[in-house]
Amino acid sequence: MRPLVLPLIWLLAIGAVRPISGRALGAASCRLERRRAPNQRRQQPREQPQQQPQPQPQPRAAATTGSLILAASRTASSSGPLERLRQVHRDGLSSARRFLASNAARHLISGAVAGVVSNTLVAPLDILRLNLMVATEQTNAVQVARALYTSGGLPAFWKGNAADVARTIPSSAIRFYSFAVYKARLNTSCPAVQSLLAGGFAGMTAMAALFPLETIRTRMAIEAAAGALRGESMVRYVRRLVAADGFSSLYRGLPPSLISVMPYFGVRFGMYDILKRWHLRRSPWATEGEVVPVGASAIYGFAAGFTASGLTFPFEVVRRRAMIGAGASNPFVAVPAILAKEGLAGLYKGYGVNIVKVAPASAITFLVYEETRKRLDRFAKAEAEEKRRRRAREEKEEAQAALGDAAEAAIEAPRAT
Q1: Class of domain 90-391
Q2: Cα(254)–Cα(159) distance, integer angstroms
Q3: Of the candidates 232, 226, 230, which has an alpha carbon nearest to the alpha carbon of residue 324?
Q4: Rounded distance, CA 297 to CA 363, Å?
Q5: DSSP one-letter string for 200-234
Q6: pLDDT of 91 strictly over 70
Q7: Sign of the alpha-carbon torsion through 222, 225, 230, 233
Q8: What is the pLDDT of residue 173?
Q9: Among 218, 221, 325, 335, which one is most buried in terms of CB atoms within 10 A?
Q10: pTM for this one?
Q11: pLDDT for 136
Q12: Could you give phi then psi for residue 292, rounded to 5 degrees?
């Protein structure tokens, strides 16, 4: 066993010494490295810091950053035809909004809407009124209504309404706009006289501009009651009328019409305007130019139409008969002739139906006008507010662009020197 014991003792001795000697050697080597590090740092030459190259001053751009930002925010891309079409659409909408917000457009649109609604609702009464006024024999509203229904059924009561609406849209628009223009231009010391004159001139302006449509509407309504139209359209009727009687037939009865519409619309518009101003003066919360309530507008319109029709109805009979060739066009000749043949009742033939038609039509006209005008006024105020905000945004963008230009100039000034 002795030979085996000695190698075992030798192996145990090596295993015990190796870890001790390894740890000692590791610690010694670490201490040696720490001693060498300062000496190496003292021996190494100090490195000089690298100098950064100075930036060369760049030439100032033609357009500064602020101006480029402002231009980019305001200029739409024109990359293709689709974008150009969109730009045209946006420009068209902008122009339409500006037109609707104008004072002239508000008068024109409100007047046109009021005329269409009023005339369409009271068209049957207007047909009866016209036939009673031009009848030279004794008749009444019931007999005329039966004749109309027999000749064309229920649509016969709206016969000629297409021509009436075509006439009413421009005539009512011109009438309300002209009234506002004349009222602003006439300088009188009495506001009531100013309103009466403005209404009369407005009625004459619309009548002179659109008298052929008035003639066509009247003649179609009369011939519909006699059963002579036979479903004829307005265009075909005009062609037949011009071929038979000439173009001058469209202006037959213009002088008595101008004479009759001046007092009628003078009283109608003037009285309504007088009542409206009276109402606004009595309302402590109302301001100048403010519309009256719905109920008051209808009442004042009814009173104005009733009064105007009663005062000027004989002139209306004369001009309607002159249109269809049933009487003289000169009212100073026609009135004595009617009085001699039919008496005073001839000058007021159809007056009952006329009041039933004209007074409600006047109430509806002024009511719809005021309500439409009220909504357009709100739209105009909203458009003005949007324009003000848009201008404020543009001024803000311009200020930001100016600040950007100033900041860029301040940065580039030291570089240039």
Answers
A1: mainly alpha
A2: 23
A3: 226
A4: 7
A5: HHHHHHHHHHSHHHHHHHHHHHHHHHHT-SSS--H
A6: no
A7: positive
A8: 94
A9: 221
A10: 0.63
A11: 64
A12: -90, 165
